[in-house]
Structure formats: C-alpha cells, structure tokens
Design goal:
The chain has two helices and 24 strands. With 289 residues, the protein is mainly β. The protein has an eight-stranded mixed beta sheet. A four-stranded antiparallel beta sheet has the order 1-24-23-22, with no helix packed on it.
C-alpha cells in the first residue's frame, strides 16, 4: 500500500474530523442502503425488516414509511433509489423463504411521494439477490443480482427485463452500480473488483476490469457525482471516491474508520450521505471540492 502524502493526510483529516448531519434509525434496523429525494428527504432500506424508513430534510430521526410485513413478514430491503423522473422509489425487496428453498428477491416500485405500491418484477432462478440499481439515460434500470453474477436491464415501468450479462466467474458478488461519463460501472463486494460494462447495440454486455491503485475491502454502494464514483467500503470502514482514466482507477479516501459497516453512499448537493448498517444511522460528509 502506498504511503499517503502530507497533503493527502491533511485532506483525510478534514473529511474525517466531522460530519454535517446525522439521522438515526430504530435500533436493529440495519439501514443497508439510502437515497435522497429531490426535496432532501433521506430514504433508507432495512436489512433486518420488511420496512423502508424516511427522514424529512432537517430531521434527525427516520420513521417507518413503507411496511410490507403483511406480504413478506421476514423480508428485508437492500438497494433503494429515488427516481424523480418517474416519481418512483425503486427498492430491492428480499422475500421470505427457507434456505432450502433458496433466497428470492423482487424489484419493487413505490410512489416517491406517497409510498404507494406501483410495480414489481421478480428476479428469475431459484436463488437470486436483487442488490442495487441505476436509472439509464433511456429511463430503464440496470439491476445487479449478487448471487447469480448477473446484470439485468429493466424496462421503464419496472415489470419486464432482459439479461445484459451473466458471468459468475467475474461478477459473483456484483453489488454497486452507476454510470460515469456515460459508461456503466459495477463493483463486486466479495472480491473487491471494479468493472466497466461495455454494452453493445443489442444490449449485451462485456467487462473491462479497472485496476485500482490501492486495496478496497468489500466495496458496496456506489454513486456518481462531479466526475467521480463514491464508494462505501463495508469491511474497510471507509468511504472513498474513484477517479478513472482508461483502465486505471485512483482511490482517494474521504473517511477512514469511525463507522460501523458503511454500506451505501448518496451525493446530494454539498453533502455525501453514508448509511452505517451496524450503526443504525446515516451520516453526511462534506463533498470534496
């Protein structure tokens, strides 16, 4: 691992010293992902219950907003994404089921203003794990399936999908996903790798590995802003951003330690919101200039 320069150490201290705000969720709620609506409302999915929480702008506690416990009493939620263009909150719902039956998941669409259910698409195969998603320029969604090593393209409306890539060798553990400069990128939470997804005219994908200049421990949620990809390292207890040139990626640490399993990031204005799954909270960091 390379030694940090004095300037980098100084920047790291500035980012780590304080955060602008904090939102707590109920004890044991495990907020695994978060997103921010256009009005500043912070929305968090629960990895321990079939609930989605929200905190209006300026609030310090999040309250239950969506509860699907009647449908899936033992369900949970992973990725959540506010899609203002379609007035939809997209969410990866993990459904009930015994280990013998295999874990199954569903991409849900909810009204972004009211929380009312709008759509659903059940991922295929006996075992799957809808983890995260991003809205494409054509308003469709790209969705990661962590257990199957797959990326899906879901049509606008959220009820039909086509397979973009199926690659268990490289994409087992595929997790965070977003666009950077018009190109799609994904990371793998188990191996700690980063790939550019090259999509052809038929909508099928191939992979180009991006070689990062430092070890990244279990990259999780990943979001784009200001020409950078912001990433939560859940095992490393870090938040960093990536600048990519060709097939190389430079990792710049924003916050190192002091967090309990950061699993998601979301830029919003001058803040970067971070979900701490085992801390039952979300914090905000100042965005780098």
């Amino acid at each position: 691992m390379r030694l940090l320069t004095a300037a980098a150490m100084s920047a790291l201290f500035v980012f780590s010293a304080a955060h602008a705000a904090e939102i707590t969720t109920p004890p044991g709620s495990q907020p695994e992902s978060l997103t921010v609506a256009p009005d500043g409302t912070v929305i968090l999915g629960s990895a321990s219950s079939p609930k989605i929480y929200r905190a209006k702008k300026g609030a310090t506690t999040a309250e239950v907003w969506i509860d699907v416990s009647r449908e899936v009493p033992n369900g949970t939620f992973l990725g959540v994404l506010a899609d203002a263009g379609s007035n939809t909150l997209w969410a990866c719902q993990i459904n009930d089921g015994s280990p013998a039956e295999g874990r199954k998941s569903t991409l849900r669409g909810f009204d972004l203003k009211t929380g009312a259910a709008k759509s659903r698409w059940d991922l295929p195969s006996e075992t799957n794990l809808c983890n995260d998603m991003v809205v494409a320029p054509d308003k469709s969604l790209y969705v990661t399936d962590t257990f199957r090593g797959r990326i899906w393209n879901v049509k606008p409306g959220g009820t039909e999908a086509t397979l973009v890539i199926d690659n268990m060798r490289y994409l087992f553990g595929v997790d965070g996903i977003d666009f950077l400069n018009g190109q799609l990128y994904v990371n793998t939470v188990f191996a700690g790798n980063l790939y550019r997804v090259n999509i052809d005219a038929q909508g099928k994908g191939t992979l180009t590995e991006i070689f990062m200049d430092r070890l990244v421990k279990n990259p999780d949620g990943m979001r784009f802003a200001n020409g950078k990809l912001f990433v939560a390292e859940n095992a490393g207890a870090r938040v960093h951003y990536l600048t990519i040139k060709g097939e190389s990626g430079t990792v710049t640490v924003m916050k190192d330690g002091g967090m309990k399993v950061p699993t998601a990031v979301q830029p919003f204005g001058n803040e970067l919101w971070v979900a701490e799954r085992m801390g039952d909270k979300a914090i905000s960091l100042p965005m780098p200039k």
